[in-house]
């Protein structure tokens, strides 16, 4: 029996997911600056993630957008390799955020200056955490981590995961759609 639309099942807790490769990725704003606490810059990231979903580059299974970083659990859709998707996402969002920072005369722009010869500013850190998810328990661990991140002692952005609007917690906990379209993963 095929899974319901918008849901993905693992073939077995110890094997790769039936839909192909699934990855947990983290992208962090350079110098850990909380740019994404600002609606304008956060909306740029949200719209860009939605674009890669709508244009069938990835299936998104979980996410959280924090003030200075984002976590995604996704499956790239062939023929798009994850490296190309991330490169294009970071390049586009960087250009848009820099443009907005300039237009708004945001003083934060100065703290994002780069010494690299190929760019004047750098929005995202060069290193990105990418982990392949090959089992349901590992997926569940990462999903719980990202959903609880806003509630952590460090951040204290909300009291419970489903209260944070910039994550997929509502989709999983309350079965209500969040701000980004996801395909739930079920055991």
What does this structure look like?
There is one protein chain. Helix 1 (39-54) packs antiparallel against helix 2 (82-103). The model is unreliable at 1-19 (pLDDT under 50). A hairpin with a 3-residue loop joins strand 3 (58-65) and strand 4. With 187 residues, the chain is an alpha+beta fold. It has helices at 39-54, 82-103, 136-148, 169-173; strands at 7-9, 22-28, 58-65, 69-76, 129-133, 184-186. It has four helices and six strands; from the N terminus they run E-E-H-E-E-H-E-H-H-E. The radius of gyration is 17 Å and the shape is globular. The longest helix is centred in the middle third of the chain and has 22 residues, at 82-103. The strands form two sheets. Strands 3-4-2-5 form a four-stranded antiparallel β-sheet, with helices on both faces. It has a two-stranded parallel ribbon with strand order 1-6.
């Amino acid at each position: 029996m095929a899974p319901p639309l918008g849901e993905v099942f693992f073939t077995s807790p110890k094997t790769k997911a039936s839909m192909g490769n699934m990855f947990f990725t983290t992208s962090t704003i350079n110098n850990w600056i909380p740019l994404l606490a600002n609606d304008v810059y956060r909306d740029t990231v949200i719209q860009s993630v939605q674009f890669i979903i709508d244009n069938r580059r990835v299936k998104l299974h979980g996410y959280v957008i924090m003030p200075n970083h984002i976590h995604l659990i996704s499956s790239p859709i062939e023929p798009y390799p994850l490296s190309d998707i991330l490169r294009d996402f970071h390049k586009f969002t960087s250009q848009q955020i820099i443009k907005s920072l300039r237009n708004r005369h945001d003083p934060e722009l100065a703290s994002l200056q780069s010494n690299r010869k190929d760019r004047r500013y750098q929005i995202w850190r060069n290193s990105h955490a990418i982990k392949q998810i090959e089992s349901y328990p590992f997926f569940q661990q990462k999903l719980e981590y990202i959903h609880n991140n806003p509630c952590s002692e460090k951040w204290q952005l909300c009291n419970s995961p489903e209260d944070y609007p910039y994550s997929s917690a509502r989709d999983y906990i309350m079965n209500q759609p969040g701000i980004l379209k996801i395909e739930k993963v079920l055991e």
